[in-house]
Amino acid sequence: MAKDGKKARKADKASKPKKLKIPKKVGSIKIPKELRREGNGLIDALKGLLATEIAAAAITAIARSPRRRPGN
């Protein structure tokens, strides 16, 4: 039994993953449209467990590094 047009479109729509929308503003900082579009690819890449662990380690290393102050 073949699916009619409406059921076929509904099945196709359900099988596609939804894109995550990154907000225009985070806090009071505006995020440019180009970065928001590129961010979807980064989020897709970080869905794996290994990639998430690597990103967490990188963020932790950046947070622990001593801050450089201008003029010192």
Give the topology, please.
Blueprint: H1 5-15, E1 25-26, E2 29-30, H2 33-45, H3 49-64
Antiparallel strand pairs: 1-2
Task: Explain the overall architecture.
The chain is mainly alpha-helical and 72 residues long. It has a domain at 22-64. Helices cover 56% and strands 6% of the residues. It contains three helices and two strands; from the N terminus they run αββαα. The chain has helices spanning 5-15, 33-45, 49-64; strands at residues 25-26, 29-30. Strands 1-2 form a two-stranded antiparallel sheet. The chain is elongated. The mean pLDDT is 75.
Mean pLDDT level: 75
**How far apart, in Å, are the first and last alpha carbons?**
76 Å
Helix amount: 55-70%
Q: Count of DSSP helices?
A: 3
Percent strand equals 5-15%
Annotation keywords:
two-stranded antiparallel sheet; 2 strands; mainly alpha; about 70 residues
Short recap of the structure:
The chain is 56% helix and 6% strand. The protein is mostly helical.
